[in-house]
Each structure stands twice: as structure tokens, then as C-alpha cells.
Design a protein that fits this description.
Elements lengths: L1 H24 L23 H27 L4 H21 L3 H23 L12 H14 L17 E5 L5 H13 L3 H13 L4 E7 L2 E8 L2 E4 L1 E3 L15 E3 L5 H15 L13 E6 L2 E11 L4 E7 L16 H11 L4 E7 L5 H11 L7 E6 L10 E6 L7 H9 L5 E4 L5 H13 L2 E7 L3 H10 L4 H7 E13 L5 E4 L2 H7 L8 E4 L14 E11 L2 H8 L4 H10 L5 H10 L5 H13 L61
Parallel strand pairs: 10-14, 10-15, 11-12, 11-13, 13-14
Antiparallel strand pairs: 1-7, 2-3, 2-9, 3-4, 5-6, 7-8, 8-9, 15-18, 16-17
Helix pairs in contact: 1-3, 1-4, 2-3, 2-4, 3-4, 6-8, 7-8, 12-14, 14-16, 16-17
Bound molecules: zinc ion.
Zinc ion binds next to loops.
């Protein structure tokens, strides 16, 4: 291929040279007589108006592409000097020729050929070295260009979803070493290892699946690969081998859990990942800093690697940082304008307590940030009491005051310090400290706005959690403004979700007839499609409930049980999480099974663990899945910092949340 291109390039040069000699040998008097006009050249030389315009158009085209060829050939290491020469010299020659010869059509043709031919030849040498989705001057490329053009004009065209193997282009770069030279060394070492291609493919598949974590686990029956996607851990998914023989092209692809890799392939891929992360380097024996950078289709993402060994398994997990998500307003999280307005109204009050809650890892931190962003931080001084070890997303105009639990400091001391500045509002996340809770409630009762987040299954459970912190019910009732709770629900893949006749019990619950709501949607029966990488769901949205009003306050003061408290909240106009969830199912955004999964969390435990639908290590025998290595909180940008140790029931939930609600991919 390379030789062919080179030979052709030489031929172009020769042709250009021979042509030039022939033209120059012609005496100017042998040329045809001038025909004065706007399209022919003047006696003095040069070009007339129309050819001149064309001349500049060619120059513009060429300038754009020759610069691109230089950058692209350098990036892909495809003989940059040679191809730059090939794109520059013939064209410069042709453009001069076009000024000199009296036949403008011939001049223009020469320029066109000198522009297109080197590009064509370059594409022949380059295309095999780049992912199929980046190939140029091919049918697929033309299709992409055409689709992009139509899209600009407002026409959506469905281009072929399958380009090559359908995986994004991923490159790895070492970043953990102290010096650039050492990084370079690790990178070269990794590239020379036999598992390099396998490791790259693992990362490509993780990126295609939108995984926030890639887990590679060596077990007795091979190396299992798992992905955490949208807060769910599960085996990596792939297209099943189509049944041999009849009409296989017409049948939709079937997506299944990928079978384990053989030990040799998996082991060599892990070795590459560990090398590039510097996990084996002596100074990184602690490993929390082991990491590297990947570039996915031109976008950089940081990866962190952690290794964990037990008696039976060895597990390597790679967290793939997601772009941070900073909502500008509550509506960005999928909250209805009415509810968002109500929340804003409550937190604009001068004093009182506002509670934000969700089960662990259910996006509470993002909602808390959004609530803070919606508060009038510019009009009054906000302080935030924070544990110094937890990494939070800082909100503008909210001054953090930190305490270190590790150093034996109490949160109340941070509050005392914060009060020296006479703030008008105090906020804190993951409130568990009884002493702090009482102090905050007294402030809320007195003159401050207090916003806290707690881990709770719903808005009323959050109230119970506060009462369990030994807060007097009458105090809470006096200063209670509202309790906002949320759940994250995965959205059905719009490409492969299937219609399902609405079950009678749903019609009953929604109080509609089968004519009004003939069908809802369910997950694909083929296990997914390329759009969702076999996950059946893409992204998440949030549902909310807000308990606020005089009836709730009275109920709190009377210390009623959970059921009566709920009735009171509904009387005050609360639309419950279940109602909101049903509404989402009714409009086809999610499935009934997903709702059941989300609400099953509540039944599972008083405090909440995100349940893994399919633990990747679950064996048919029902072996207990091993826990994931705990990750430093900093590994989860923009996500919830995880429950404090006191609230953490059992093993740490290894899965950081997927993209936040409403985040579009
Ligand atoms: Zn799908």
C-alpha cells in the first residue's frame, strides 16, 4: 500500500514536470489569439475575474487541507514530511501555471488535480492506520460529511451506526511518574507488551459502554470483565455470535454478557494497564495514585487503577473519570418547574431548616449543589461545614469551614468558628453528628437558614432520621421548612425499548383507561443495542418528592408514625416518589422493572445500599460476590462523596454513580 502511494506520488511529480516543460516550450506567439472578455486573461498576463475567483477558491481549499494533512500525518505518524511535500509543491506549481497559461479551464483543472490527487493518495496510506470512524475519502466519510451538512440545515439523518468494530478510538498515556521521561518510558514499555491490544480493547469497550468503572477479575474460570454503568455493576456486554445459517442479517443483534477472557489474554492486558499506571513502580506501592490518562475520540479522561487480592481472586478496577456535571438550576436535574419554584420559595425564607435526602449514591450531592446554587447566595453570607477528607464540589459564594475528623476535631468546633463571621445561612452535607444537628436546629429556629443533606430513603424518612439524632420534635416542627428527597432512575434506551400493553394494575394506579394509555415501554428483549452498548438503558433522570407545609409540621410535633406523617405530607400537596416514578413509566421514559429495582432499595435495608442487578462475580452456584476495593473520594468528581462510615451498611458500594441526572451523552 505504502509503496503504491509512493510510486503514484512520484508519477504525479513527473507528470507535472513534463507538463511544465511542454507548456514552457511553446512560444507565446503559438498561443491562440486573445479574446478580450471577463473570462479571459489580459494581454499583460494574469487571470480574468471568474477564473480569478475560482483560483482563490482552490487556494482556500488547499490551504485548509494541506494544513490538516500536516497535522494529521504527524499525529498518526504517516510520513509527515513526505506528504506535506506532496500536498504543497504540485499545487503551488499548478497555481502558478494557472496564472501563466492562457487557457483558464486547463489551469483550473490542473489546480483541482494538484489539490485532490495528493489527498487521495494520502488517504490510501493513512486510512488503514486509523479507526474506521476516522477514515477519509471513503463512502463512510462522504456519508458522515453529508449527514453533518444536512444536520446543519436541520435535517436529521440516520447514518450507519456500525463503523468498523463500532468502538471509540482510545489511546493511553502514562501520567503517574514524577518525570515526563519516566512517563514516556512506562508508556513505551506498555506499548511493547503482548497484551497492549487487549488492554486497549478493554478500555475501548468500557468507553463505549459509558462505564464509570472497569473491573477485571481473575477467577478460576477465566478473567471476568465488568462495567459500572449508570450506577449499576454488571458484566461487560457484547453481541452474541449470530446463529449460523438462515437469514442472520435480518435478525436484530442479540446482546449478552461477555464470556470470561482466557487467563493469558486477561493477565497480559492487566499487566499492560498496571505498567502504564505505574502500579508496579516501587514508589507507588501504596497505589492510590496509580493512574493514567486516556483519550477517547479526542477527549481526555483520567483513569485510576486499584488492585485488590483475596485468597481466591485478584481484582483490578479502573475508574474512568466522567466529565464533571454542575447543574445551573434545579430544572437541569429534571425537576418540574412547579416543584423547583416551590423549593426556591422555601429556601429564600429568612430562617428555618431545609433537608435534602436520597439513598447513598443516588445523586444527593448533585441535588444538594443545585439547591445551593438556587439559593440567594449573593444576597446573604453562606458557610458550609465540611469534613476536610471529603472532596466536595465547591459552590460559588458558599464559604467552606473545615474540620478534620481524623485529627479528632468535632464538627461543632467548625460551626463555632464559622459563626464568628455572622453568616446568614449554614449548610452541611451528610449530617450524622447529633451535637452538630442540635446546634444547627437551634440556629434554624433562631435566625439562620440551615440546609442539610441526610441519607434517607424518602422525604419522610429524612425527618425520622433527624428525630433519631435526638432532636426535640417541637424544635424540628418549629423550624422545619421542607424535606426534598430524590431517586435516580435509568432511562430506557430510545433505540431498543419495546412497547408493552399497559398492565391493568398500572391503569388502575394511574386512574386511566386502556384507550388512554394503550402501551408503556419495557427493556429490549434482545438484550440491548449498539446505542446502549447492550445495557438497555442510557443515562438517568431523577424523581423528587417534597414534604412541606403546616400539616407536616403539626405531624412532626405530634411525633406521629411514618404512615401518618406520609398522609400529612400528601395532604400538604406532596406528590410521592412512587407517583413520580409511575408518571415516568407512563410516558415511556423508563420501565416498570427499573422502578421496582429502584424502590427495592428501600426494602433491602433501612439504610440503603445500591443493589447490583448482576454482580459480575455471581456464579451459578450463588457464590457471594466479593466487595470492590474502596476508592478515594476524589475518584468521583461531581458525585456524591459516599456515606460517612457511620452510615455505611456493610461493604462499601464500589460503584460511583454514573452520569448525573439529565446529563446528556
Ligand atoms: Zn439500546
Amino acid at each position: 500500500m505504502a509503496w503504491g502511494s509512493r510510486a503514484l506520488a512520484v508519477a504525479v511529480w513527473l507528470l507535472a514536470a513534463v507538463g511544465a516543460r511542454a507548456v514552457m516550450a511553446m512560444a507565446p506567439d503559438g498561443w491562440p489569439a486573445e479574446v478580450p472578455g471577463w473570462d479571459s486573461r489580459d494581454k499583460a498576463g494574469g487571470i480574468a475575474l471568474l477564473p480569478l475567483l475560482c483560483w482563490w477558491v482552490w487556494i482556500a481549499f488547499w490551504a485548509a487541507t494541506s494544513d490538516w494533512v500536516f497535522r494529521d500525518s504527524t499525529r498518526h505518524k504517516v510520513r509527515p514530511e513526505f506528504w506535506t511535500m506532496c500536498t504543497v509543491f504540485p499545487f503551488v506549481f499548478a497555481s502558478l501555471l494557472a496564472w501563466w497559461i492562457p487557457w483558464s479551464a486547463a489551469g483550473q483543472a490542473a489546480m483541482a488535480i494538484a489539490w485532490v490527487l495528493p489527498l487521495l493518495l494520502y488517504s490510501r496510506e493513512r486510512n488503514p492506520k486509523v479507526p474506521a470512524a476516522e477514515s477519509i475519502l471513503t463512502a463512510g466519510h462522504m456519508q458522515r460529511l453529508f449527514a453533518a451538512l444536512l444536520k446543519k440545515m436541520g435535517v436529521q439523518v440516520k447514518t450507519a451506526a456500525v463503523v468498523g468494530n463500532g468502538l471509540p478510538w482510545v489511546t493511553m498515556a502514562a501520567t503517574s511518574a514524577e518525570t515526563p521521561e519516566e512517563n514516556q518510558k512506562w508508556q513505551e514499555e506498555a506499548a511493547a507488551m503482548p497484551g497492549f491490544a487487549a488492554a486497549t480493547k478493554l478500555l475501548q469497550e468500557a468507553a463505549a459502554a459509558r462505564a464509570s468503572m472497569l473491573v477485571i477479575e481473575a477467577t478460576a474460570d477465566g478473567v471476568r470483565v465488568g462495567h459500572d454503568v449508570d450506577g449499576i455493576s454488571g458484566p461487560a456486554r457484547g453481541v452474541a455470535e449470530p446463529p449460523k445459517g438462515r437469514g442472520k442479517s435480518k435478525q436484530p443483534e442479540v446482546w449478552v454478557d461477555v464470556p470470561p477472557l482466557d487467563a493469558a489474554t486477561g493477565g497480559s492486558a492487566v499487566a499492560v494497564l498496571r505498567t502504564i499506571a505505574g502500579a508496579d513502580a516501587a514508589k507507588l506501592s501504596g497505589e492510590p495514585d496509580a493512574g493514567f490518562m486516556i483519550e477517547v475520540d479526542g477527549k481526555k479522561r483520567r483513569c485510576r487503577l486499584a488492585t485488590r487480592s483475596t485468597k481466591t481472586t485478584k481484582q483490578v478496577s479502573i475508574t474512568l473519570d466522567l466529565p464533571p456535571f454542575a447543574p445551573k438550576k434545579l430544572e437541569d436535574l429534571g425537576m418540574s418547574a412547579t416543584l423547583a419554584g416551590r423549593v426556591r420559595e422555601l429556601i429564600s425564607l429568612e430562617k428555618g431548616l431545609f433537608v435534602v435526602s436520597s439513598p447513598a449514591e443516588a445523586g444527593c450531592s448533585t441535588t444538594f449543589d443545585a439547591v445551593l446554587v438556587s439559593a440567594d447566595r449573593l444576597l446573604r453570607d453562606f458557610v458550609s461545614i465540611e469534613e476536610s477528607a471529603t472532596v466536595c464540589h465547591e459552590v460559588q459564594n458558599v464559604k467552606p469551614v473545615r474540620y478534620s475528623a481524623a485529627a479528632g476535631e468535632k464538627p461543632v468546633s467548625a460551626l463555632k468558628q464559622a459563626m464568628l463571621e455572622y453568616p446568614r445561612a449554614v449548610v452541611t452535607r451528610d449530617l450524622t453528628d447529633k451535637e452538630l444537628a442540635l446546634e444547627l436546629l437551634q440556629l434554624a429556629d433562631d435566625q439562620q437558614l440551615v440546609i442539610v443533606s441526610v441519607r434517607a430513603t424518602d422525604a419522610l424518612d429524612a425527618i425520622q432520621k433527624l428525630l433519631q439524632m435526638d432532636i426535640p420534635a417541637d424544635l424540628l416542627a418549629r423550624c422545619f421548612l421542607g424535606s426534598l428527597s430524590q431517586r435516580l432512575i435509568r432511562k430506557l434506551c430510545p433505540q431498543c425499548g419495546e412497547p408493552l400493553p399497559t398492565p391493568p394494575e398500572i391503569l388502575q394506579k394511574l386512574k386511566v383507561t386502556a384507550e388512554e394509555l394503550p402501551e408503556i415501554k419495557r427493556a429490549s428483549s434482545h438484550g440491548g443495542c449498539r446505542a446502549c452498548a447492550g445495557r438497555q438503558f442510557v443515562g438517568r433522570t431523577a424523581i423528587y418528592e417534597l414534604a412541606a407545609g403546616p400539616t407536616v409540621r403539626q405531624a412532626i410535633a405530634k411525633q406521629v408514625d411514618a404512615k401518618v406523617l406520609r398522609q400529612a405530607a400528601v395532604k400538604d400537596g406532596m406528590r410521592t416518589l412512587t407517583d413520580e416514578g409511575l408518571a415516568i413509566v407512563a410516558n415511556g421514559l423508563s420501565s416498570l422493572e427499573e422502578m421496582q429495582r429502584v424502590f427495592a432499595v428501600k426494602k433491602e435495608a433501612g439504610a440503603s445500599i445500591p443493589i447490583s442487578a448482576k454482580p459480575i462475580s455471581a456464579k451459578p452456584g450463588g457464590a457471594k460476590p466479593p466487595t470492590r476495593p474502596g476508592l478515594p473520594p476524589s475518584a468521583k468528581p461531581g458525585s456524591s462523596p459516599g456515606p460517612p462510615p457511620g452510615l455505611r451498611p456493610g461493604p462499601p458500594p464500589g460503584s460511583p454513580p454514573g452520569p448525573p441526572p439529565g446529563a446528556k451523552r
